[in-house]
Amino acid sequence: MHVSPPIDSTSINERIARLTKRSIKNESKMYALRLAISMMDLTTLEAKDTRGKVRQLCAKAIRPHEALPDLPSAAAVCVYPPMVRIAKEALGDSGVKVAAVATAFPSGMSTRKVKLEETKYAVNEGVDEIDMVISRGHFLAGEYNYVFDEIAVVKEVCGKAHLKVILETGELSTYDNVRKASDIAMYAGADFIKTSTGKVQPAATLPVTLVMLEAIRDFYYKEGKMIGMKPAGGISTAKLAIQYLVVLRETLGEAWMNPDYFRFGASSLANDLLMQIVKQMSGVYQSGDYFSKD
Predict the structure, then answer these.
(1) What pLDDT does 58 receive?
(2) What is the pTM of this model?
(3) N or C terminus of the chain with fewer C-beta within 10 Å?
(4) What is the set of domains in the chain, with CATH numbers?
(5) pLDDT digits over 47-58, tens only?
(6) Pick the catalytic residue: 29, 183, 194, 272?
């Protein structure tokens, strides 16, 4: 088993404090806002989801704001497996990907057989990406090989679909655990590592994201493979999204500054990004009533 380095929490927190004080010029801010839109995974993961709601979310992913047709589309729409086919049909050839949560999301409390069957179902429906959750109970009990093996077999049944592995960092408690879980996921075959389900607090935070980005950096230096990163949950303002992009740029560099390697899992973020873009263009804020409440 790979031995993860210990994390100096003081240096992590100090680095985040420095990076989040960076001032952004207006021209760079507009670039960052548009980039953030292109990195969004618009998500609906509720028991009351309907076909109509999924179709509406897909329409927003393709064209985030009707009055601004030159804006980039979102990166993906994330749904439960039974909604994959609906999303695929609604998105058509737009280039927006369909992601599905699997492996007994959000708890992960099911048998491996059930988790694999759910993943296979989503893959057979045509999903582009699988967002799986790790078994946190096994991880916290020190059963790291169990977690590794489970990720590896899910990756195998994903076929061509990319695998995003959700660590649920709010339940891992320490930076050392976050780093170890990140390393396990990457060595087991993850294409992305993701902070959270959005169902547990705290969800994504900048310090935890930095720990995961540094794990990705070290994995790239050792293995020569680029792994993506997805902070999810709790990112609701454009200002915070830009701070994440600054941390990304300063930690991993320009090569990761695109939707292939970085995503935001935060549907509530979309409207604030749009409001800030309109503000940059017109000098005034629009009311939130001008934006769909997806």
Answers:
(1) 97
(2) 0.94
(3) N
(4) 9-281 (3.20.20.70)
(5) 999 999 999 999
(6) 194
